Amino acid sequence: MKTKHPVDQVPPITQLSVLSIQHVLAFYAGAVIVPLVISQALKLDATTTIHLINADLFTCGIATIIQSVGFWKVGVRLPLIQGVTFTAVSPIIAIGLGADNLQNGLPQIYGSIIISGLFTFLAAPYFSKLIRFFPPVVTGTVLTIMGVTLISVSAGDIAGFDPTSPPNPKNLAYALGTLALIVLVQRIFKGFMATISVLIGLVTGTICAAFLGDVTLDNVSASPWVGITTPFYFGWPQFSLMGAISMIIVMAITMVETTGDVFAAGEVVDKRITSQDIKAALRADGISTLLGGVLNSFPYTCFAQNVGLVRLTRVSSRWVVAAAGGIMIVLGLLPKAGAIVAAIPHAVLGGASIAMFANVAIVGIQTLSRVNMRDDKNAVIVSTSLGLAMLVTLRPGISEILPSWATILFASGITLGSLSAIFLNLIFNHLPSRFSSQITRDEKGRTYSMEELNALPPTEFQKVLSPLFNTLAWPLEQAGRAVPFKDVEDLSQNIQAQIAAADDSHKIELIRDYPDMEQLLFVPSTDASAITQDRGSLALDTLSSQQREKLHALCEAYKKRFGFPFVARLAPAMSFEDILEFGAKRMDHEPSIELNVAIAQVCEITLDRFGSLLADANPVGSSWARKFEALD
Predict the structure, then answer these.
(1) pLDDT averaged over every residue in the chain
(2) How far apart are the first and last CA of the chain?
(3) Cα torsion for 74, 229, 85, 318, to the nearest 10°?
(4) At what angle do helices 46-68 and 13-41 cross, to 10 degrees?
(5) Phi, psi of 196 (to 5 degrees)
(6) What residues pair up with 84 in beta bridges, in sequence order?
(7) Of all residues in the chain, what percent carry a pLDDT higher than 70?
C-alpha cells in the first residue's frame, strides 16, 4: 500500500476541527486589518466597512481552499493559508483617493485588482522559470527577513503602533502570559495537546482578559446574523491604466513573497519544491486575486504566520488549512460569528504571533545553515538584505521622503529585503566577472585563482578538485597533465574530455564508483556520505514498499544486463515514475551504447558538482542552467 506524504494525510475529524480553528484564530487579525486600514483611509461608512471585512473573509476561505486543495494545475497543495497582501494597501488607497469620487474610486480599485490577478495567472509559468535565482542563500535570507520583520507587527499589537505612546503594562502582561503558556504547553505535553498550544494560549489569554474587563462584545450584538457577499457590490469595475500598473507591480512583488512562503512550507513539511509547485502557487494567487476583484476583496498571497504555525505544531496536513478555509467562508457569511473571533484582544494575538513569526525566522536560519558563509559574497547578500529590511521596519516613515515611484519598494521591510537578496544574488552569482570567472575553492573554503591552480603540484591539484568525483582520481590525474588551463571552462571541458577518451575498463570502473539509484534513494542519511556527495539527491518523498521493490528489480536487472550499476543524475524535479521510465528506456540499449549513456550521466553529475565547487565561474551558469532546465 502506498504511503501518503504527511501533507496529504487527513487527521481524525476532532483533531481536524480543532487544528483548523487554531489556524483561523492565528490568521484572523491579519485578515481583517487590511480592509479596516483601507476603509479608514478612504473614509468609508460602517456598513461598507463591515461588507469589506465579510467579503475579505469569504474570499480568503475560497482562496485558501484553492491553494491547499488545488485543481488542474492551480494550487500548490501545501498547508498554506491565503490572505490579503499588505503590499497592496498603499496603492489601493492611492487609487481610491485619486478617483473623482468614492463612487468611482472603489470600482477603479477592483478593476485594477482584476487586471493584476489576470497578469499573475498568465505570468506564473514565466516567473516559475526564475526558480534558479532562488538558491538557499536567497530563500534563507527572505524567510529570515519575513520572520524577523513581522515581529514588528506583534510588537504593534502588544504595545501599539505609536512609538510616542508608552505601552500599557496590562497588554504586555497579556502578551507575555500568552507566549509563556504556549511555551509551557509545548514543554509539558506531547502529541495532540502540543499541536494546539497556540489555540490554548489564545483561548486562555482571552478568558483572562474577559475577567479583567478587557474584552468587549459590543460588535457581536451590533453585527447581523447573515451577510451575503455579492459580486460587483460597488458597481461594475472600471479600468485605470496607472491603477492597473501599480497593482501589477504589487503582484510582481507578491510573487516573490509567495515563492518564499512556498519554499518555507516545503522546508517545514519536508517536501521538495519544483518550478511546477511555484507555477501552481502563483496561478492560485492570480485566480484568488481575480476573485477578490469580483467579490469586493483585495489581492491575495500566502500568510507567513500560518507557515510558522505549521512548523510550531508539526502538523503538515493541507486538509487542516483547507478546513480552516471552510470556516473562514462561514465567518464571511455570518458577521456575528466573525465579530466573536474579532473580540480576541490584540495583545493576546501579539503574544501568540511572536511564537509563529519567530518560527518562520527559524526556518530561514535553518536554510542559511546550508550556505557557505565563509564565502564573502554570501555574507554580503545576507547582511545587506537583512540590514535594509530592518532599516525600513524600524523606521517605516523612511518611504515618505522618496519619490512616489519608489514608495512601494520601501513600504515593507519584507519587500525591500527580498528584492535586495534577489538583486545581490544576480550580481554576485550570475553576472559574469573577469575576477570571479577564474576562481575556484577547496573544501576548506580557500580560494584559488586559475594561475594559482595551474601552479599547484599534481597531488595538491587533485586534492582541490577531488569533490568532483567519489573516490577515483584518474580523471583528475589525466587532466592535471594538461595544465595550464586558460580558464575554468577550459578546465571543465578537459576533465570531460578525459572521461570520454578513457578506455571501456576505466569507464566501467568510474561508473561502479557511483551508487545505483536504489542505494542513492534508500541509504540511511548517516551512511549517505560514504557513497555519494550529492546530498540533495536524497530528497524524494517517502516511497512505498511496492515502489522500493520495483526499483530494486530494475537495478538488479540493469546490473545483470550491463555489468555496472544503474547510475543517473537525479534532477530536482525527477519523480519516482521518471526514474523507472528512464531506467526502462536504458534497458533497451545495446551494451556499448548504454556504456556511453552511463558515462554521460557521470559527466552530468560532475558538472553539477563543478557548479557547486566553483565560485561563479562561467561553467557554473551553464551547469546550473542544465540543473534547472529539469524544473520547467
Answers:
(1) 77
(2) 30
(3) -40
(4) 140
(5) -105, 25
(6) 300
(7) 78
pLDDT digits (tens, 9 = 90+) for 129-138: 776 677 778 8
Domain range summary for the chain, segments of one domain joined by +: 13-158+165-228+237-429, 437-629
**Maximum distance among all alpha carbons in the chain?**
86
Q: Are 281 and 75 in contact (CB under 8 A)?
A: yes
Of 484, 444, 485, the closest CA to residue 464 belongs to 444
> b/e string for 340-363 if b means 16 or more Cβ within 10 A?
ebbbbbbbbbbbbbbbbbbbbbbb
- pLDDT, residue 14, reads 85
DSSP state letters, 530-549: GT-S-GGGG-PPP--HHHHH
pLDDT of residue 619: 33
Of 303, 283, 352, whose CA–CA distance to 126 is shortest?
Answer: 283
User: Under CATH, what is the fold of the domain 437-629?
Assistant: UraD-like (1.10.3330)
What is the average per-residue pLDDT within 433-459? 65
Quickly list DSSP for 562-626.
HSS-------TT--HHHHHHHHHHHHTS-HHHHHHHHHHHHHHHHHHHHHHHBSS-HHHHHHHHH
Helix (H) or strand (E) holding 550: helix 545-562
Q: Give the tens place of pLDDT for each residue, 181-227.
A: 988 988 887 766 776 777 788 888 888 988 888 877 776 676 677 76
**3-state DSSP assignment of residue 71:** strand
Q: Is the pLDDT of residue 266 over 70?
A: yes
Question: Could you tell me the three cell numbers for 250?
Answer: 504589487
Cell of 508: 566501467
